[in-house]
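notes to self, project folder thing:

trying the whole complex as one job this time. last attempt i did each chain seperately and stitching them together was a nightmare. two parts in total, labels are on each line so i dont mix them up again. if this works i'll redo the older ones the same way
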Amino acid sequence: MEGPYKLQKHKCRFVTILPLYSDKVPGDLFYAAEKKPDLTEFPYPLPSAPDSYTCEAVTADGIHWYGSPTGVTAYDPAAERASFRVMYFSAQRYLPDNEVKSMYADGTVIWVQCRTGVARIEMREITCEEKAKLLLAETRKAVDRRGMVTDKHLNEPRNIDSAVSYGHSDNDGCFTAAYAIGEMFHYAYCKREKGPNAPDTMNAKALAYRACEACLLLMYISGRGDGFVARTYLAPDEPLPDDGLFFEKQEDGTAVCLNTNAARERGMVGMKVKAGEPVPARLARLYRSLGYSDAGIRYKGDTSSDELTLHFLNMMYAYDLLCDEDEELRELIVTACRNLMNHIIDNGYMLLEADGKPTTWARWNPGYFAIPTGWADACLNAAELLMYLKVTMHITGEAGKWQQHYNKLIKEYHYDELPLLHLDRFTHMAYSFGNDCAEELMYGDNMLAVCAFWGLIGLEDDPVLKEKYRKALRTWDHTLLREVNPGYLYPCKLVCPDYPLDEEAVADWFYHNNVSRLEAGINMVRRDQPRRTMFGGGYETSWLMQPDELPIDRYDRNYNAYYENIQGDLQSVESCYVYTFAYWLGKYYGFID
Amino acid sequence: MANSRKIHLIGNAHLDPVWLWRRAEGQTEVLQTFRSALDRLNEYGGFVFTCSSAAYYQWVEKVDPEMFREIRNAIRDGKWVPVGGMWVQADCNIPSGESFARQLLYSQLYFDEKFGVKCKTGYHVDSFGHNAMLPQLLKQAGMNQYVFMRPSAEENPDLPLGPFWWESPDGSRVLAYHIPTGYGDHGRATLDKSLKTLESLAAQQDHGMMLFYGVGNHGGGPTKGDIEYLQSLAERDENLVFSDPDSYFDELKHTLVDLPVWKGELQHHASGCYSATSMVKAENRRAENNLYSAEVWDTLAAAKVNCEAATGALASAWEKVCFNQFHDILCGCSIAEAYEEARDFYGHAQTIAEETKTNALLRLSRGIDTWIDGVSDAVDGTVRHQSGGRDFLRPVVVFNALSHTVRVPVQVNGSSARVYDSEHMPVLFSNVRSSRSNDSHQDTLFLAEVPAFGYSTYWLGETDDGGVKAKSHIKAGRAFLENEYLRAEFDKNTGGIVRLLLKETGVDVCGGNTLAVPAVLRDDKTDTWAHGVFRFDERIGDMHLHSMELVEKSGVRAVLRMRYTYEKSYLSCDYILAEGAKTLRVKCRALWQEKFTIVKIPFTIGGKQPVFTSEIPNGFLTREPVGTEEPCQKWTDVTAQIGDEVYGIGVVNDGRYSCDCTGATLSLTVLRNVIAADHFSPRPPADFRYTDEGLAIFEYGIYPHAGTAAESEIVREALQCNVRPDVILAGYHKGEAPQRAGFLQIDQDNIAVTALKFAEDGSGSVILRLYETKGRAKTRVSVMSRLLDCGFYSDLTAHEVKTFRIEPNGRVYDVNFLEGIV
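result (full assembly):
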């Protein structure tokens, strides 16, 4: 690398939606003279039809605002970056609805009167770090649930303060781990740059520990004592969703499988499961400090490989970045890692549920790879298992059993070769369903592949294997490079020096993330965006839009997805990790400054 | 879990509609074969018949509607399976990317309209080679599987036999099946032998295979005897199933097997086919170029003046061009008589293209305001500009159908004393010798600059008003030509180029070599296809320079004429260097009479580490410079390290398709004169017809450049060599249109448009097709057109082809070759 890319202060969208007759709305908005702009010579494609714009205004920062029945277009002729020259503002995220009636410029603020309400929009200058802090604050305020962060429901639309206290995700472990890794980099960066006792460092440290511990708790909370990892857990007073296997911990050191569809299908309703292994107090305080005891805790099982891959990466970075001064944490990590790896090895490279059968998606064994559902998964799962073993060796400082299995998997089952077949098998599978790869992909697999190869290549010393794994990672180019996502690009660049990294495009990504993760949809039916029909009939956008004009995404969604209807209900908010993970990773490793 | 190792028995009839027979016989062959296939379907319960080529079905529809209904029923019942998704089994190296799009478009729409199905399997069992971009092109028509047979295992031992993943340079993949045996096995002995081979391969590769049986070439199809024999085998062996390619691929897609991956083209089989019968190749290119222009102007004119478009007629023209792309026609290996009909088909297509284009250009030009007050007063029975001594400037409108601005010399009937552009700025011009031999004998040649998809109006005057003259950089002498970019120096003994200087860098790409002296090679050891011969390197000698003469020198251009002779033949080459040109054009006229010969024009770059790159449909391909004869399209190129930098010599052409590169020497094959339709023949005495005997007129261009071929502007240079500006003598009229306008703007230099047309569904939607030309990983292109009321962006990856459907309401869809219709 030639040195960090200097991220600049940039304009960011700050929006407030108000009722039509709010006393905060300037009266001039309603009396603004209607002036139909002449956009026939406009030099760029426009989101709305050029002759459909009905009003215009110019704010003090030189931005021209054009209102239409299909939203607002902003034109900043002085913008240095092309991505800021023409911007589109649509309902729900930026407008109450898309039918613009009038606009009024008040300094650098544009007021937009729509059919059902008013929007106050300001393009405010902000740094990327300030954005990270704002996003983090929102997550801590509205999303954090005993250290776990995925998303939260809001009682009132658009009102972050109305977040309910409960809510879980199937992938709490996975998403929280990514968030935790980001915060660990945050802490490590502050510690290195500002000193261990600087206030920013101390704040970051607290957040990193909390998130890391929330993940570790999932590795202990079942109390099974066999290394089993829970997907997530619910406090006794949280509503129980019927979306998987849940086990309620009892006073007697057991847990009972609750009556859900999944439990019925699996014949596990009422099954008593061992749960007597104590949860380490340091981790249990995440719920005990809120007044909950262990009895009544309901943890979710049927855990998938997604969770475990992120847990291993979380443990690896927690071990490297947090444990120097925390022997207790080190011990918790080493034990959890060893237990989990033993579980997987002892059970034939599978994670077993309490009924002794493998969970639905946590299978890395050769037998699974030989059946239709596992054949295409084999390429990713083989890399995952090798990564788990490498991380375990790194954390425990032991080779022995782990190395033996690593060698065995390579020698006997060619787990080092399987990842090279990813594109071939994946295409094969997609075609068998009449689709193309992009239509068939589980987009969460992108993150899993990045994390698996990140850990695996980073820890592999053998140059031949390392090169092979790098080559295997590149079989994911067809999906990873379809989007611009520094959360993928930076790890890939770290372990593959020749990995393509378009720093200007990445800068645009940072600049065009908003300061809120409110699930507010946008309008994708725009004149400048052709809808693309894919091979199997699915829809995508013809060009990749910036994050502030896309639906709110995680690292498990298709950034190119096209929706005819506005997505988002305004009643949930997502965690900040999509941004903070990439940002602090980039800062820590010197990609950005 | 054990995989299925079934042998799928594919009953088919390979039908060459033209080859060693003319088209009428081919039609009869189709009718008889289809009748036979229907009869076999009625007789044998499990029998399935597979057949490609929409053109054949259309023949049956027109000639025998009752049989057509029977076929429709058989397709509905799954007994008859259309494959290929193309108008014919085309040659797969010569047609342009747009031609492939049309092959696929018209036939898939036809199959959908007539039978309610779209072909799933691309099918070129007899075509001689397959360009590297085909996987993408097939997928653009909804097909992700492909069957082919050539080259054989002997011709290309590296190519997998049976199924494999075939990947094109853009990353598209299809599941391809390389027939290991034959496309038309028949008779017990052959069937037994093939089955043994296939069973062995199935066991080795752990998946099923396909056996293609049925009498072919001149049609015929599965015989009763063969069907009954295979039935008897199938009764004893459950691994033998009567099937079709679609079913085979469905089974294979559900088989857990790691198939090999092949990236790039599938060559070589008949290396002589890309140069034999150069007439048909030149006509193919000319038709592709003219249909492109005709559709562009037809579309823009219809949108501008609200007149009816000629979409149906143009489709009919394309169908004829598509038919002539049948591999034995376009490859120049059919009997000579068959080319009379091929010419007729081109005539049909060219007539439609020419009329459509001219009408459209006249419509557009008549909307331009060219009125001059007082011009009506001057009418005295002759044309206005010549009358009354008043010297009214005459307006000429130059149209450019390309997606980039061009600056090119334009020749207009009659001489002039001054030329202005629409802003009344002086334009570089000269009077040059016209092709006619009456009146002044002179035409006006001026340097026009015309925006993309647009026009510019120029004004020509008969008297010199003494105004400022435009400046020129042209210099020329008896043995050199020079403009602001290039200087070419010629050897007085051979006529070859001994110095080709890029003035900006001062680099001479010749490096001591002599370029472009026509070489004659012997070619008497093989047949029309050049079976078994993959390089032409038996050089007899060079053509002899008869004369070298500077025939034209003006500010617009200079022309140096070389006349060569060889035995009873001659070749004249006009080297033309125009102001502002980066390509040295060479207009050639050959009268060739030498039997069993090839003529190549060699270009040796004076550098190390040569890299050989050629255009393929919708892209380019780099091959090893090892001397094998290779297909190319509008351009081919050799680059090399000269000093610390890379430089290249690109060669563009207007209708040649074959070349080789031996080390640093790139040779364009311009003539191949061997016996027509000579297929491994002992050649009993006869008055043979030869493939390239007679007059040939062609043009090529030498484009020296810095950097790699991909980084250079060779795609644009090649397009300019092919799609020429059109000139309309506008006349005087009032109008609302400005004197200069562009109707559609594309903002990236690595994007080329291959089609601008109306959708085939009559909806009024406009289709725009473009592709990425330079191999850049990511390109965001913006497309804007006030006329079409649209403005949009799209992202393209390297070598990607995209088709947009622009609705009348301005909404745009990113569709495939089938235009969002089906």
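what i see at first glance: The CA atoms of residues 382 and 415 of chain A lie 5 Å apart.
need to look closer tmrw
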